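Structure first, sequence second, as always.
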């Protein structure tokens, strides 16, 4: 297996929600193999546990847990990865122990009819690692979605102004413009914050809060994230959403061919020079 490879490589991404870690918050697991180093990570979005093993320690641990396994056990890394990610249907989980400092689980499955045992023994990661691995990516996603939302609302408002201008000029359209209403961004936000989805998010955030909130430390990390985001945008601009306003204007122009004729009528002043020219020719 090459270096810097996420395992498994079957379009699951680096994180997978696991059901064998039952708690009031959902748990996610990740298996990363990089330059022979096997890393198991677990998070419930409030903290991070990880177990880091090099190839020699991983092989020795697998041999110590399974007396029936001999020889080179490196090909079994994929099997263990599927067990940790909860992707092996024959795997059972027991002795689950979760504390703030440790996360321990015993995993057992069948391999060629024989039992294969693996024990997860993860330890709490440092706050810096938790910020880099969990908080910063989540905040980057939130900030990116916020920019997309602002761009979308701006384009909707531009389209509303275009339609409103057509109505003011009494342009007839095959569409039923009488049912059209301007988009109210404030009402849209109020409807979202009153929805069940927002209530579930708020309940989840409240359950994640432990102890007093350190606003100064949070703001320092937020400034750091903002600086990183600006640096990445300068290196490679992020395209948010396609410009649908121009397409919509072109579409309306095709549906309303009378618009050009009604707006750009030929002035009567241009007919006068033609008459004078004819008279000169007659003379």
């Amino acid at each position: 297996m090459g270096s810097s490879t996420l395992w498994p490589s079957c379009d699951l991404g680096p994180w997978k929600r696991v059901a064998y870690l039952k708690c009031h918050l959902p748990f996610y697991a990740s298996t990363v193999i990089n330059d022979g180093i096997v890393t198991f990570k677990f998070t419930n979005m409030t903290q991070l546990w990880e177990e880091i093993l090099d190839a020699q320690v991983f092989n020795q641990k697998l041999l110590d847990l399974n007396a029936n396994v001999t020889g080179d056990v490196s090909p079994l890394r994929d099997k263990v990865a599927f067990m940790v990610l909860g992707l092996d249907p024959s795997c059972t989980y027991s002795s689950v122990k979760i504390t703030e400092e440790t996360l321990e689980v015993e995993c057992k499955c069948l391999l060629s009819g024989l039992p294969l045992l693996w024990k997860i023994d993860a330890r709490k990661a440092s706050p810096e690692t938790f910020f880099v691995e969990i908080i910063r990516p989540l905040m980057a996603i939130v900030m990116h979605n916020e920019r997309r939302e602002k761009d979308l609302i701006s384009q909707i408002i531009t389209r509303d102004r275009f339609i409103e201008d057509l109505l003011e000029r009494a342009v007839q359209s095959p569409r039923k413009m009488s049912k059209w209403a301007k988009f109210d961004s404030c009402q849209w936000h109020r409807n979202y914050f009153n929805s069940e989805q927002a209530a579930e998010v708020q309940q989840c955030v409240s359950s994640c809060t432990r102890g007093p909130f350190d606003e100064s430390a949070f703001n320092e990390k937020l400034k750091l994230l903002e600086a990183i985001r600006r640096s990445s945008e300068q290196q490679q601009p992020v395209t948010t959403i396609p410009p649908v306003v121009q397409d919509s204007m072109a579409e309306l122009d095709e549906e309303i061919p009378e618009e050009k004729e009604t707006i750009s009528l030929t002035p009567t002043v241009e007919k006068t020079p033609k008459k004078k020219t004819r008279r000169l020719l007659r003379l």
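Margin note: Strands lie at 5-6, 16-18, 27-34, 37-43, 48-53, 92-98, 102-111, 114-124.
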